[in-house]
Specification:
By secondary structure, this protein is an alpha+beta fold. It has two domains: 113 residues, no CATH class; 131 residues, Gcn5-related N-acetyltransferase (GNAT) (Aminopeptidase, 3-Layer(aba) Sandwich), CATH 3.40.630. Strands 1, 2, 3, 4, 5, 6, 7, 8, 9, 10, 11 and 12 form a twelve-stranded mixed β-sheet that branches. Helix 4 packs antiparallel against helix 5. The N and C termini lie far apart (45 Å). The model has no long low-confidence stretch (mean pLDDT 93). It comes from Actinospica durhamensis. GO terms for molecular function: acyltransferase activity, transferring groups other than amino-acyl groups. This is GNAT family N-acetyltransferase. InterPro entries: Acyl_CoA_acyltransferase, GNAT_dom.
């Protein structure tokens, strides 16, 4: 894979020219910033920024500070918490420090991985007695959240509300899968299909502790790759944790960059 070319495509299609995630979401470019205001509990924040200049460029630094202040003012006026999605190649190089100084809280960095759909496995392999089930209704969402809470050790009420909304109103925009051992849900994952682009994104992928190391997560990746192939997508993208990155790289994904979410909560 030409990782430089794919990163440029990723930046252009999923950041600078990002399509709205769903009906009611608003994406707009304001100066050097592209931001989204999600409907309801939809994702809200800054997708892309370009302040130009080389490292140490005072004009670029001043432009970044002004844009940060502008976005804080805008989202605070909406009384919305928002995220600035920072990537390792964004400039100025100290943009993360500038966000922190302005009151943003960084989360753990993740690695942006991309795999060519044509190069990835599409046949899920699971242990005996385990099956994959497509999520299509409220009951399926409740089982997904049960897995999520156990796998990640924390509830996510916003994700819960978002999935319920998507199942009810945007079933073609998301595809979620449960892995069941007998009747017990042991893994859950979902896919976002970015319509009009070459990319689908993998999210979730949480496995309860007792079932890790048995190939279940790999099976959900193969399952979701097959879905992306059937819809004609060229690439799968993942913001990978340190736990999932080695698995995905063995399957054929390539690291393009790192990304760190910086969150601002109005006081």
């Amino acid at each position: 894979m030409d990782t430089k070319a794919v990163l440029e495509l990723f930046d252009r299609r999923l950041r600078r020219d990002h399509p709205a995630d769903g009906p009611g979401d608003v994406v707009e470019r304001v100066g050097a910033v592209v931001r989204q205001v999600g409907a309801g509990d939809g994702w809200t924040g800054v997708l892309w920024s370009d302040f130009g200049g080389a490292d140490g460029d005072d004009a670029a630094a001043a432009a970044a500070d002004a844009a940060i202040a502008e976005q804080i003012g805008y989202f605070t006026g909406l009384d919305r918490e928002f995220e600035w999605k920072l990537y390792s190649h964004d400039r100025p190089a100290d943009l993360g420090g500038r966000l922190a100084a302005a009151g943003f809280m960084p989360d753990e960095p993740e690695t942006v991985l991309v795999g060519a759909v044509a190069d990835l496995p599409t046949e899920p392999e699971v242990p005996e007695g385990v099956r994959l089930l497509k999520v299509t209704d409220v009951a399926g969402v409740e089982l997904m959240m049960q897995v999520h809470d156990e796998a990640f050790g924390r509830p996510s009420p916003r994700l819960h509300r978002h999935l319920l909304h998507q199942v009810a109103h945007e079933p073609d925009a998301i595809d979620a899968v449960l892995v069941l051992a007998g009747d017990r849900p042991v893994c859950a994952a979902r896919t976002d299909f970015h319509q009009g682009t070459e990319f689908a994104s993998l999210w979730g992928g949480g496995t309860v502790p007792q079932w890790r190391g048995r190939g279940i997560y790999r099976a959900t990746v193969a399952y979701r790759t097959a879905l992306a192939a059937a819809r004609g997508y060229q690439y799968l993208q993942v913001d990978a944790s340190d736990q999932s990155r080695p698995i995905l790289e063995r399957l054929g994904f390539h690291a393009l960059a790192t990304t760190t979410p910086y969150t601002y909560t109005p006081h």
